[in-house]
Amino acid sequence: MKNFLVKFSTIILLLLVIRPVSANVSLVVLGDSLSAGYGMSKSVSWVGILERRWQDTQPDVELVNASISGETTQGALRRLPGVIERHQPQAVFVELGGNDGLRGFSLATVRDNLNQIIDQLQQRDIVVGLSQIQIPPNYGKRFTEMFAAMYPELAEENNIRLVPFFMEQIAVDADLMQNDGIHPNEQAQETIANIMEPLLLELVAQARKEKSEAS
């Protein structure tokens, strides 16, 4: 009887250790100030809100905010290998390009950087979601239209999910924007979290499916 209890306890302990690891899905948000929570603590950003929410509703999902205010596609491309190595994600949501557009960077350069980011992720069988990005119309009609069109083209070319730009629903409400007219304020973060949650969960579901098929 004693040996049975020891063996039974050992099995239970192994299950407690092994099951969370095998079931775990890591989702990284690779973005700029819109996801980093510019002007506020990361903990109150929309990603931080989802991270706390998912501790109860999605306990097998690790949500990592690897966003940096002021980030460009080139900067994210440089640090991507380190992000992958550190967090070992099964899915990555890419929210980048806004700073490139605001600085008037070449569209060819932005496209190439995004393509390289997507390629590095796909080579590691990581599910990729790409956020649509738009820049203010004062940069000229032709440039802003070409910039916006680049994202669905990249999504189609790479066969990845294009995620609608959450700022479309936020920027039209002055009460949800900071004084600079570019960044959402703290009040907007809950709204953004509600917009993004079902979209990110689609990436999680895809990652779960591919992980299951590979095992």
From TrEMBL:
Gene3D superfamilies noted in UniProt: SGNH hydrolase (3.40.50.1110)
Pfam families assigned to the protein according to its UniProt record, in alphabetical order: Lipase_GDSL_2
Signal peptide (residue range): none
Name recorded for this polypeptide: Acyl-CoA thioesterase-1
GO biological process entries: lipid metabolic process
Gene Ontology MF terms in the entry: phosphatidylcholine lysophospholipase activity
Residue stretches making up the SGNH hydrolase-type esterase domain: 29-189
Cited CDD domains: Lysophospholipase_L1_like
Superkingdom of the organism of origin: Bacteria
